[in-house]
Amino acid sequence: MTDATLDAIRAGLRHFRRRLWLRRFVRRATWAIAAVAVAEVLLAIAGRLFPIEHELLMAVALAAFALLVLLGLTVGARPTLLETALALDEEQTLKDRVSSALELAARAEVPDPEAAAAVEFLRLQREDAERTLRLADPRAFHARLERRPALAAILAALLLVPLTVLSNPQDRVLAQRQVERQVAQQEAEKLEKAAERLAERGQTAADPRTELAEELRKLAAELRQNPERLDANLARLAALEEAIRQRLDPANEQRSAAITQLSRALSRLQGDSTANPEGDPKKAAEALDKLADSLAGMSRAEKEALAQRLAQLRSVAQQAGGEAMRALDAAAQALADGDDQAAQDALQRLGDALQRAGDQVALQRDLASTANLLQNARRQIAGAGQQNQTGQQGQPGGQPGGQPGGQPGGQPGSQPGGQPGGQPGGQPGGQPGGQPGGQPGGQPGGQPGGQQGNQQGSLNVGPGGGSNARFLGSGMRTGGFVGPTTGNKQFGTGDLDPIFADFDRLGRPGDPSYIAGSGGQGQTQTGNQTGTGTLNPALTPYVNVYQDFYAFAIQSLDRTYVPYSVRDYVRAYFSSLDPSANP
Predict the structure, then answer these.
(1) Which of 67, 94, 365, 562 is the most buried (most CB within 10 A)?
(2) Which residues contact 41 (CB under 8 A, 6 or more apart)?
(3) pTM of the model
(4) Nearest Cα residue to 43 out of 29, 28, 60, 30
C-alpha cells in the first residue's frame, strides 16, 4: 500500500541524512588529520635521529594512506533513513515520532483489512510525524570538530614546521650515500664493459681473460646490489687488482717495442723499405712465409747475406723473447749452411713465435688495463666515501724539504744544496766552466762552424751537502748569455740530429740524482772565457738515446697510476719519435 504521507516523511528525511553524513565525515576527518600529523612528526623526528632514505616519499605515502582510509570510513558511515530519523528525534527532541512512523511502516506495509482501528492509528501517527518533520529545524546536525583530535593536530602541525624548515643533519649522510650509490653504479657499468671486451678477446676457456671477465661481472653485480658496503667492495677490488698485478710483466712494453722493431725489420728483408710500418707480427709472419718460399731461387751469396742480416737482428730478437731468438738463430745458421728445408722450418717457427709473443703482449696489456681500471674504480669509490671529509692542506715551505728549494738559503742539512754554492758544488768544473765556458762550447761551439762564445758569469761555487732531490735550490748567474743563440728549428729524424744527452755526467733516465759533497760554506768565483767552441761530446746521436727514454717512459706508465688519456698520449708521442718508424 502506497501512502503519500509516508513518502513525504521519507523525502523530508533526505535533507537531514546529507547533513548527518557530513557531520560524520567531519568527525572522522578530524581524527584522520590528527593521526597523520602525529605520524608525520614522529617520522620527522626519526629522520633527524637516523638517516631515512625517501623520507619525503614516506610522508606523502602516510597522507595518501590516511586519505584512503578516510574515504573508506566515510562511505561506510552513510546513514540510512531510519538512522537519520532516530538521530533527528534525539537531536530535536521529537519523542521518536519520525522514527516510529518509519518503523511501523516497515512492519505493517500491508495491514489486515479487518483491523480498521489499526489502519486509522497508522494514518494519524504518520500525519503527526509528517507535521513534526516540517516543523523541525532544517539546520540540524551541525558539523562539529572534535576537540581532542583538533588540538592534537594543531600541536603536531606546530611541531612539524621547525622540523621541516630547519636543516636536517642527516641530509648530508643521505647525500653521501647517494653519491656512493651513483659512483658504484658508474663503476659497475665500466666493469661490465671491460668484462665484455675481455670475454671477446678470450680465445679459450683457459685464457686468463675469460676467467677475469667472470670475476669482473661478479664485482659489478656486488657493486650494484650492495653499494653501501664500502669497505667490502674496496677490499674485493684491491684483492683482484693485486692478483692481476702479480701476473704483469714489467718488461712487457719493452718486449712489445722489440717485437714491433723485429717484425718491421723482418718484413723488409726482401727489399721493401716501407713494408709493415706498424710492425704487425702477423704481417711479419706472412712476409717470412714468402721469404721461405723464395729461398729456392736464391744464390749462395744471397743466402749468406740474408743470414748476416738475420744475425744482426739477434739482439732485438733476444728482447722479443727466447723462442723468437732461437728460431732466428736456427734460420741464420741454416741459411749459412745452405740447408733450405731447415731454414724454411726455422722461418716458420720464427713467424709463429712472433705471433705468440704479440698475443702475450696483448694479454699483458689487457691485464694491465684491467688492473688500472680496478685501481681507478677503487679510488673513485673511496673518494666518494670521503668527499665530506676536509683534507689537510700543506703549507708552502712549511717543512724542510717539503717544497724543494722553498727557502732561499735553507737550513744547514735541511735543504741539501740549498745553501749558496750547494747546487753548483755538484756540477763538474764548478759551473764557471759549465755555464760561462761550457755554454759557449755547448751551444755556439756545438754548431758546425762554431761561434765565438763570450760570457762572464758569477756563480756561488762550493761543496754541496749531498742530495737525492730532483731540484736543488736556485743558483745565481749574471752574464750576457740569456737564451739560445739560434732560433728553434723544426724537429726531424731523417738526418738523426744529435741531441744533448750527457749520460756519463747526468745519468740515464730513471737513475737517482746524487750530488756528493762535504757541506760547508761555499765561495764565489768569477770567470771570463773567450774562444772558439769545440765539438761537445755530450751531443749524442738521436737514435742511440731514443730506446732509453722510451723504455723509461713505458716503465713509469706501468708502475704508476696514469689516466688512460695520458697513457695513450705518451705512447703516441714516443711512437711518433721512433727513428725506425720515421726513416
Answers:
(1) 94
(2) 156, 159, 160, 163
(3) 0.51
(4) 60
Spatial separation of the C-alpha atoms in residues 497 and 495, rounded to whole Å = 6
What is the distance between the alpha carbons of residues 290 and 190, in angstroms, rounded to a whole number? Answer: 43
- The three cell numbers locating residue 118: 489499526
- Tell whether the torsion through CA atoms of 263, 266, 267 and 271 is positive or negative: positive
Give the burial class of 458: count Cβ atoms within 10 A of its Cβ; 0-12 exposed, 13-18 middle, 19 or more buried.
Answer: middle
Give the residue from 338, 313, 309, 340 showing the smallest Cα distance to 324: 313
Segment 124-143 mean pLDDT = 87
What CA–CA distance (Å, rounded) separates 298 from 517?
64
Handedness of CA 348, 350, 354, 360 (dihedral sign): positive
Q: How far apart, in whole angstroms, are the C-alpha atoms of residue 165 and residue 48? A: 12
Torsion of CA 556, 562, 565, 571, to 10 degrees: 10
- Please, is 192 exposed, middle or buried when counting C-beta atoms within 10 Å of its C-beta (0-12, 13-18, 19+)? middle
**Nearest CA among 262, 242, 276, 263 for reference residue 374:** 242
| Cβ-based neighbour number of residue 22 at 10 Å | 14
| DSSP tag of 408 | S
> Strand pairing partners for 528?
456
- Is pLDDT above 80 for 407? no
* pLDDT of amino acid 409: 40
How far is CA 299 from its chain centroid?
61
37-41, 63-67, 571-575: lowest mean pLDDT where? 571-575
Query: What's the pLDDT at 437?
Result: 37
Instruction: Tell which phi-psi region holds residue 477, choosing left (phi > 0), alpha (psi between -120 and 50) or beta.
Output: beta
Q: Which amino acid is at 446?
A: G
Of 435 and 320, the structure prediction assigns the larger pLDDT to: 320
DSSP-derived secondary structure letter, 501: -
Mean pLDDT, rounded, for 555-579: 70
Which cell numbers hold the place of 325?
Answer: 731468438
172-186 confidence digits (pLDDT tens): 888 888 888 888 999
Which helix (H) or strand (E) segment holds residue 381: the answer is helix 340-385
- Identify any residues that bridge with 524 across adjacent strands, giving them in sequence order: 460
CA–CA dist 504, 340 (Å, integer): 47
**Which residue has better confidence, 583 or 251?**
251
Burial class (CB in 10 A: 0-12, 13-18, 19+), 199: middle
Q: Cell digits for 448? A: 758546425
The grid coordinates of residue 225 equal 646490489
Q: What is the pLDDT of residues 194-231, one digit of tens each?
A: 999 998 888 777 888 999 999 999 999 999 998 888 88
- Grid cell digits, residue 478: 749574471
DSSP structure string for 560-580: S---HHHHHHHHHHHHHH-TT
Beta strands in 281-428 (DSSP E): none
| Residue ranges of E strands in 401-497 | 452-461
